[in-house]
Sequence to fold (280 residues):
Amino acid sequence: MITMTKTTKIIIGIVAILAVGIGVRAMTSTKKLMPNFAAQLASCKAIPNDSKQNVFETTRLTIKLPKDVFPGQQGKELKFITVNGTAKAGWISNAGPMGQSYGATANCWAYYYEFEGNGEVDLVATSSMKGIPSYLVHFIVGPAYGDQRILYRNDQYGFTFELPKTWQGYSVVTQEWLGYATGGLHGDVASQKGSIIIIRNPHWTSKNNWQPIPIMVFTLSQWNAVQLGKFSVSAAPVLPTELSRNARYVFALPARYNYAFTSGWQEVAKILEGKPLHAI
Fold:
């Protein structure tokens, strides 16, 4: 028979109290985290949980998740499960390592994926933390060359651009953008130049400037320089808007590209909302 001294009983009591306290704090931490799950997803600009998304074969998307609730960087918490058809998604490496793809921040992972096939596929991310619900997004993958979309592909710079079927018969011209040094003595002399790919609606004519889709092409060093204000590509004090990038180039929309509000500008704005440019 083991007899406990008064000191031993006191020590055991203290240990028990500490254990209960730790357990309570852990439960409280989880309770605090769970109501914030949606807010944390939103702060990372993640695709809404339990949502349905329509995409196309060859569509590329950045999947963002909060690090606090999904601590695995290597994408082990992410799974794409085919529901029907041949739809699936594969990781694309040219935007950066798993979890550190372009768009990652101190609080959010970023993963870059491309969709393939046709049908439906679910993205499921399961947190290793207890009490955190699974993250689920249902993707409906349509054909890139089907009745819904047509695809422009530029192999010189490495990107594709999805267009609605109504743009069948579109034309493409390549022009040149010029960049002017800022703050120097020779601001009127172009210090940089690059290509601008212009996709024209079939309604466009020399007399009817139907709103085109202009895509500026920057090298990575040019893009960094224009962001730092080392040169300017517009009279307006507004930077170009990045659409996507690959290992060599950044593709961007010129500032105030539709300032004239010509015919068809609303349609072009709607097309661009769907993030149709995908770097390859």
User: Anything to note?
Assistant: The CA atoms of residues 101 and 229 lie 25 Å apart. The helical segments are 6-33, 37-43, 220-227, 265-273. The radius of gyration is 26 Å. Confidence is low (pLDDT under 50) at residues 22-33.
